[in-house]
Amino acid sequence: MLDKIQAYYFCRVIFSYISEGRKLKIIKYNKCLRNKIDISIRNYKIYRNKYIIYEENGKGKEYEAMLDDILIYEGEFLNGERNGKGKEYGSDGKLKFEGEYLHGKRNGKGKEYNTHYDTLLFLSKILNGNGEKYNTDNNLLFEGDFLNGEKNGKGKEYDRNGYLIFEGEYLYGNQWKGKEYDKNGNIIREVLKQDGFIKEYYDNNEERLMFEGQLLNGKRHGKGKIYYHNGNLFFEGEYLNGKRHGKGKEYDGNGNLIFEGEYFYDKEWDGKRYDSFKNVIYELKNGKGFIKGYDGDRLIFEGQYLYGKRNGKGKEYNYNGKLIYEGEYLNGLKHGKGKKYDYDTGNLLFEGEFLYNKRLKGKEYIDGKLEYEGEYLFNKKWNGKGYDEFGNIIYELNNGNGTIKEFDDTNKLKYEGEYLNGKRHGKGKEYHYFTGKLKYEGEYLNGERSGKGKEYDYETGKLIFEGEYLNGKKNGKGKEYDHETGILLFEGEFLNDERNGKGKIYNYYNGKLKYECEYVNGKLNGIVREYYIKGHFIFEGEYLNDIRTGKGKEYDYRTGQIKFEGEYLNWKRNGKGKEYDNDGNLIFEGEYFDDKRLKGKEYDRNGNLIFEGEYINREKKV
Prior knowledge:
Layout (H helix, E strand, L loop, with lengths): L6 H6 L12 E5 L6 E5 L3 E4 L2 E5 L4 E6 L5 E9 L2 E9 L5 E8 L2 E10 L4 E7 L2 E7 L5 E8 L2 E9 L5 E8 L2 E8 L5 E5 L5 E5 L7 E8 L2 E9 L5 E8 L2 E9 L5 E8 L2 E8 L5 E6 L2 E8 L2 E9 L2 E9 L5 E8 L2 E9 L6 E8 L2 E9 L2 E9 L2 E8 L5 E5 L4 E6 L5 E8 L2 E9 L6 E8 L2 E9 L6 E8 L2 E9 L6 E8 L2 E9 L6 E8 L2 E2 L1 E6 L5 E8 L2 E9 L6 E8 L2 E9 L5 E8 L2 E8 L5 E8 L2 E2 L2
Antiparallel strand pairs: 1-2, 3-4, 4-5, 5-6, 6-7, 7-8, 8-9, 9-10, 10-11, 11-12, 12-13, 13-14, 14-15, 15-16, 16-17, 17-18, 18-19, 19-20, 20-21, 21-22, 22-23, 23-24, 24-25, 25-26, 26-27, 27-28, 28-29, 29-30, 30-31, 31-32, 32-33, 33-34, 35-36, 36-37, 37-38, 38-39, 39-40, 40-41, 41-42, 42-43, ...
């Protein structure tokens, strides 16, 4: 009876009642492998749904009973534990690890595998000693010494393309002493100690020193120097946790001193900044002071600083030296009272109050004349009045509702129309940024084009589209026109700004119908009817992604008489087909390849068979 017991029942039932002291010979079947094993019950060990079959020489196999007796380990045991050489397998039967064990754990030399790709993942003395590490593509990433599973001692590191990127010593998994390389083998960084002295190089030349100084926990810490590409000194001073902190000096590319003092976490804190003529530009005390900021030799800001940011009153200038803002700042942002000026003309654009860079309330001007006065919400006009050039009220907003005019930063009109809750809602018009010409007129919903509308060309001003919109895009029926001639080019259905559905295409030259068609995602797909330039019907058939492919029929452009019916591939006759003469008589039926007859039958105008066979390069094969 026992020789017919399956492993599942054997492990779950029989073991519960048979003492290990009994020397009963039994037969066990492995459910997956169907291996027949003749063993003694004393050679079994069972724990947590696993069981081990021992052999006389200390070797054995470990199975997972709950997973249909899958083999999960084979190798050496000692006192019921994995001890010595062995192999581990995953639930899919693939090799996960082969190597040495001690007291049931991996210990010593071994190889670890990626079971998804059947590639070597790790080869090492896993805890201690020399080893190699690979990625899932079986590329070597590291070779060297390990301690407690971490890089420790001498080693080499590679990128996934096999280029050496570091060679030297490691401590607790971190680079300690050695050299970093680029893919061309140039030294880009030299580590003398993790907590000591370091040299870093620009990546294109090992002779070009970028930094030299002290290091702590892998970061610049203590005294150090930074150099320009040309080798001139850029900075010398003190660092803290990777940032300039403490006393230091900064130089321009020509070696002139431009700052001397103290830094606070990479920001100038106490000291003086100089121009190229050694004139003091500003002086800081505890991060406070009056500062002048330059871009090259151009003054772009002057004002008060606090903790390294614009705080208090200040002025901004454009590259031509014209004032573009004057007012108050908080933590580097426009905040409080201020004025903005036109970048080009210098004319006043806005005066009022800012809240974290956004307008809160104030007045807007166009060419020196008041255009709006009131409150803003998230930089949009909210409660206020709009004026024309004569000072007459032309609109009034109440909590974002009403009619309004929007202007860009250069005071060019960009929208006029209805508002609801601070958004474009209802009828309105948009204008082109460059030309000022009408760009769109139509309906809006919650700030986006929705409903019927028209688009115009920004140069010619001609109508280029009229139709339906939804969520700011063309959706529904619409018509497209040529931007120069105004000729109708297309009418049909749109989806998310693309032609989608049934439509008609018209000839650019004379406006006559050219295609009756169907579109999918902006391309011709489905049944298409084509017309000659003079309006005669010439083709009806299938298209795929703008290409004639599938079944179709060709017609004579003069008489309308059918010329061909059959199959197409990439614009050419391919597959079965029939040809007709000018009177509609069948003259050929057969197969085509690349627009040429391949084999078939030819008939005269009376329907008599005159040839049957194959063709080579349009010639009959005799």
